[in-house]
């Protein structure tokens, strides 16, 4: 099963609370949260991975 992760946007003016990111099997090993951007506000330094 390809990996998934939950992310939150911490930007004060962004209304996105939580989203789940689904990857393909060929996801690069060195991909970090900072390589992604929020689908609502476009920020990348405001994303945080939810650790369960």
Spell out the key features of this protein:
mainly beta, three-stranded antiparallel beta sheet, globular, 52 residues
Would you kindly provide a brief summary of this structure?
The protein is an all-beta fold and 52 residues long.
- Give me the Rg, rounded: 11 Å
- N-to-C span: 19 Å
Helix count, per DSSP? Answer: 0
Helix/strand class: mainly beta
Major sheet size, sense and barrel closure: 3 strands, antiparallel
Beta strand %: 25-35%
The number of strands is 3
Low-confidence stretches: none
Percent in helix: under 10%
Strand order of the largest sheet: 2-1-3
Topology, pairings included?
Blueprint: E1 4-9, E2 18-22, E3 47-49
Any overview of this molecule?
The protein is mainly beta and 52 residues long. The protein contains no helices and three strands. A three-stranded antiparallel beta sheet has the order 2-1-3, with no helix packed on it. It starts with a strand and ends with a strand. The relative contact order is 0.37. The model has no long low-confidence stretch (mean pLDDT 91).
């Amino acid at each position: 099963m390809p990996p998934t992760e939950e992310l939150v946007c911490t930007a004060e003016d962004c209304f996105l609370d939580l989203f789940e990111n689904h990857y393909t099997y060929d996801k690069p090993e060195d991909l970090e949260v900072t390589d992604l951007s929020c689908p609502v506000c476009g920020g990348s330094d405001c994303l945080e991975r939810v650790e369960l």
